[in-house]
Amino acid sequence: MKFDVRDIVRANILKLESYSSARDEFKGKANIFLDANENPFEGAYNRYPDPLQIELRNKIAEIKKIDSEQIAIGNGSDELIDLLFRIFCTPGVDNVIIPQPTYGMYKVSARINDIEIREPLLSDEFDIDESRIAQSIDQKSKIIFLCSPNNPTGNLLITEKITNLLLSFSGIIVVDEAYIDFANSASLTTSLAKHSNLVVLQTLSKAWGLAGLRIGMAFASKEVVTLINKIKPPYNVNSASAQLALNSLQNIERKDEIVRNLITERKRMESSLGDLSFVQKVFPSQANFFLVQMNNARKCYEYLLKHGIVVRDRSNVVQCENCLRITIGTPDQNKKLLEVLNDFN
Ligand SMILES: Cc1ncc(COP(=O)(O)O)c(C=O)c1O
Fold first, then answer.
1. Which of 7, 47, 63, 325 is deepest in the core (most CB within 10 A)?
2. Average pLDDT rounded to a whole number, residues 259-270
3. Could you tell me if 109 and 74 are in contact, meaning their C-beta atoms sit under 8 angstroms apart?
4. Which domains does the chain have, with CATH numbers?
């Protein structure tokens, strides 16, 4: 959909004069910095970080082959989700579409921002149900949240259906690709040039193994990235995280090897879990976890806990009755899990 993003930005955000930090106002080289009320005695962290994370964005741009001006960095993608609500949705007025079941943070963030939530179900195969979504949309619908591969179901959404929504919806479509490195499908970032209403979220928390650093990425039009940078807290990514992330991003081979390893384990676990007599279904996964339907998920959850193994009970999630979500662990962890499960009755 070709639209002017300013048409759907909240009026107060369009008018906003953003906070101008010392580092925003002077970016050049100097011998003595007395402009930010920092502690002048040099140490690893006495200076504020770069508010625009230029170095980190350039590195990500190189890896992802995306213009750095189309990348915004958040304190985890959870922060970016919240910022998108604040840019596009007026509290008490607008609504968002969150097809279910999916990642719970979209809903929590909507509630924090006092935004009405509309929750059409995904199809029986957990794919986009175009007619249910169409019925949920009205003039006040500002964002549709899609997650591919989806959490907690593990499946990819069909790209053609996402494209149809991008073409027909005059709001923002967020495609959360937190688990895309584990999938046999290209990222939708390749469609950014065609769709100015597309925002793709990714994270360093999963395949890159850096959940503790809190680095999330939004790939979007330059206009949307500018809006994110306009409203985000000035120093949302700390210097230590940015530096450690940069170090890890030098080593793509390590990330690739871990991903290959987890995909091999995924294949092995899919068949081993499927062989257990009390397992009704192992949903096919393109992520680093499985949704597993059991005869009695709660009982199995508690049994595993007694043996020191924690999984996620998703039984209360719509369309996930009697389901556990099990993250794929190391070969040793998976072996132990299977041994314990083999003795469950
Ligand atoms: C679909 C999805 N998006 C985002 C996140 C959060 O990512 P981050 O650690 O970057 O905040 C998660 C975490 O589990 C997730 O499952």
1. 325
2. 97
3. no
4. 5-250 (3.40.640.10), 253-342 (3.90.1150.10)
